[in-house]
Amino acid sequence: MSEQEPILSDGVIIEFIDGKDVPVGHKDFGERAVVMRDAKNPEGPILYFTEAEWDAFIAGVKDGEFDDLLDEEPPADV
What we know:
The protein is α+β, with helices and mostly antiparallel strands. It has a domain at 32-40 and 49-66. Helices cover 15% and strands 28% of the residues. The protein has one helix and four strands; from the N terminus they run ββββα. The chain has a four-stranded antiparallel beta sheet. The radius of gyration is 14 Å and the shape is globular. The N and C termini lie far apart (35 Å).
């Protein structure tokens, strides 16, 4: 599996790691896991997602599922 540089987006660090390297044992992460951390506090809490969970999250964002959480309404042309 090829290494990918971490992504920094809106103050969040997103990394794709080998699923065997996840220190959480309550579910199977498969070959790859997605890790999210706060860029301002990279040593703080870490969120781990399976690829299926990550794909569902991205699909929800694209579908507007979380728009009600925004402080402002998104532009009408989105």
